[in-house]
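Intended use. Records like the one below are meant for learning the mapping from a protein sequence to its folded structure. Do not use them to infer anything beyond what is encoded.
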Amino acid sequence: MNFEKTTKPSLLKMKEKRKQIFLLLFLFVGLNGSCQTLDLETCLKMADTANLTLKNARLEVSSTEAQIKAYKASLLPKVTYTGDYRYYPMIPGQLFPAEFSGGKEGTYTVVQFGVPYNFGNTVQLNQTIYNPLLNSGLNSLKVNQKIVELQSKLTSQGTQYQVYQTFFNLQAITKQLNFVESNLTNTDKLITNINALVSQKMMLSIEADKLNVNRLNLVNQQQKLTSTKNQLEYLLKILVGLDVDASVTLVTDGLIEKSIIIDKSDSHNTELDIINAQKELNSLEKSGIKMGYLPIFSFYAAYNYSYNIRPETNFSKGISFGMIGVRIDWTLFDGFEKHNKAKVNRIQADKLNNQLELIDQQLAMATDNAKKQVEIQINSLMISKEQLKLSENIYNQMEISFKEGVVSSNDMIKAENDLNQAQTNVISSYVQLRQAELDFLKSTGNLK
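Structure written out for the chain above:
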């Protein structure tokens, strides 16, 4: 009996501990599952499928495709039905010479035509036989579809550019924060050591105050960087279609001097493609203006069945009516409307030619500048990293000398500030290199 009394509480405790362990494991897995780790490629893929701006661009493409289908449908025969059901409480009349019915010459009598009830049903067919503007309009819609698709592609490249920029800036901010936090840790250790020396009256308290001032600067820098990081994370979530409350971490991008220069012969800029497509559309518009001088031929046919009733005499009669015809519509003089439209078209063509030449020059200049900047920033990053190594060595040596009392706090603070500046230079060179690479890819149309 005593054995059972002692073992049951222990079993209950073990079960409770197991429950707690399982609950902690569940929470741990849940928290890890809710935090997504993203690399650059994943961010780009997510943006491609979930970004709202890109979704709207693709909807615009679908809308243009639907417009072409609607235009083609307008070329098919049109069959319409009209039902006209009338009751005349007062049958309309018309004046008629009385002499035709034996009346006095020069007088008129009112003659009523029709019956009180009339039920009319008409079926009509219309088909365009020849309209010189139809093919021109369809071709213009197809070219416009090409323009919309190119604009969608340009929007996609712009979104990718934003994702690249935000991702690299987040990388830089994270690395800068790591540097600042490391510097804070080292400063706190120094302050602790100095406080111990001050308490032993081996050092003046002003030395600790100097380091505390430097520490406050680091804390202020840390807070600003954290705020900027939060803003960039918020922007990245919007760009890739994540919930703004989702937790994300980024795969670390190394501070490496890589080059993504691509042979300029492979360049294919979307902006130039759009201008060329607009020139094609302008040419079709010019042809359409000329076609407007030609006549339009169309065929039509109609069938009508009218049923007439006069209740008071029990009269009823159905009357059928049918016809076919060909109609010609030809504007012989339009008040110089097409003449002036042609002038506007020529001006627009000149503007497109100038715009094409200007964009081509701007892209060539942007490509050349970006290529040079890539080479400059590669060297700049290499130099900055070398400076950082030297600054770290100086700081470490200065820290040892300071603890030994060989150098003053002013020398220590200067070494710390130099280290901080070297770290900032590395981050700045990294960001500028990635920016130059992005600008080069964008100018050559190879941003993917």
